[in-house]
């Protein structure tokens, strides 16, 4: 390769790296600047959302619409009924989606989006509060709003300063602040999040022991007097790598595959009570699988038993059930 051409490519790459770095810096600076002066209106908007029992309707057009869809989705994940409604569709029948006891969150950088006019008029006529996120506190949208979150004029980071970039990034951050602030003020818990987000890795991390533990007929239960030959058949049938030695509903001990191997030569002479390990590791039914896996790992065992308040065994958890996909 030509040396001079290679030097030019290296120089171009360095210039590109600096250009890309400046994009992140400028957008971060916009968020930081707003955080220094826009908190009161964001807090007022959060309080308004919490005070309303009905649905949150998020609306916008173009890039604001795309951001609005994500904001509505985040609110739903946190337990608040939220719907995105395209502003243009509101004039063609979708105004019926607006809950009389709800609140509208309208996004528009200019604050002069014509498609919002019918929706704003409807909200005014039916006394439905509107929260706006816009650049101008003097815009038509701002004046029609109950709470206006105005972030001021921004310099878009696109090469021509025209494509929505900095403004949409900031609007998305404001939406996150509204959603997380709502969850904090409304007391949303991890259980609430799991209820609305059972799929994916996030949902998996919040699953509890009681959601996956083996129960009922799946439990490998044997009596203290059980012969080891019969014990091995139970263990093979239940396929959990262990058996629980129980009496009157109480677990006296646990027998693992390793215990069987160590006493293989004595299978015909011993009973379950003779080789069981007393005080087996227990896990709480209400803890997450992530925490259960940590407890089993620290105890250096692969199986934990789950007991009720009367110390009766109600389930068995194998560490493989705690592994997240």
UniProtKB/TrEMBL annotation:
PROSITE patterns: CBS, SIS. InterPro entries: CBS_dom, GutQ/KpsF_isomerases, KdsD/KpsF-type, SIS_dom, SIS_Kpsf. Signal peptide: none annotated. GO terms for molecular function: isomerase activity. Pfam families: CBS, SIS. Keywords: CBS domain, Isomerase, Repeat. Residues 213-270 form the CBS domain. Residues 45-188 form the SIS domain. Belongs to the SIS family. GutQ/KpsF subfamily. This is KpsF/GutQ family sugar-phosphate isomerase. It comes from Sphingomicrobium clamense.
């Amino acid at each position: 390769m030509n040396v001079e051409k290679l030097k030019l490519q290296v120089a171009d790459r360095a210039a590109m790296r600096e250009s890309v770095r400046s994009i992140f810096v400028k957008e971060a600076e916009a968020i930081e600047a707003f955080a220094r002066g826009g908190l009161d209106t964001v807090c007022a908007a959060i309080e308004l959302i919490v005070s309303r029992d009905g649905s949150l309707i998020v609306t916008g057009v173009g890039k604001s619409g795309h951001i609005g869809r994500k904001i509505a989705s985040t609110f739903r994940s946190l337990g608040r009924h939220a719907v995105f409604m395209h502003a243009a569709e509101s004039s063609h029948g979708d105004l019926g989606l607006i809950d009389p006891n709800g609140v509208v969150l309208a996004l528009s950088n200019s604050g002069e989006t014509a498609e919002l006019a019918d929706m704003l008029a409807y909200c005014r006529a039916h006394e439905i509060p509107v929260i706006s996120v816009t650049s101008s506190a003097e815009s038509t949208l701002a004046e029609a709003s109950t709470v206006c979150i105005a972030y001021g004029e921004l310099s878009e980071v696109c090469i021509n300063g025209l494509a929505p970039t900095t403004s949409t990034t900031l609007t998305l951050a404001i939406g996150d602040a509204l959603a997380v602030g709502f969850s904090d003020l409304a007391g949303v818990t991890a259980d609430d999040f799991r209820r609305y987000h059972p799929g994916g890795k996030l949902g998996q991390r919040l699953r509890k022991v009681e959601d996956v533990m083996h129960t009922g007929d799946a439990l490998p239960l044997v009596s203290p007097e059980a012969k080891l030959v019969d014990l091995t058949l139970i263990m093979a049938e239940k396929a959990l790598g262990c058996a629980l030695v129980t009496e009157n509903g109480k677990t006296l001990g646990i027998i693992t595959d390793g215990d069987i191997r160590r006493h293989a030569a004595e299978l015909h002479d011993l009973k379950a009570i003779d080789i069981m390990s007393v005080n087996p590791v227990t896990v709480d039914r209400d803890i997450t699988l992530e925490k259960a896996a940590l407890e089993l790992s620290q105890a250096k065992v692969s199986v934990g038993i789950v007991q009720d308040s009367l110390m009766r065994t109600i389930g068995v958890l194998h560490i493989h059930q705690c592994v997240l996909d």
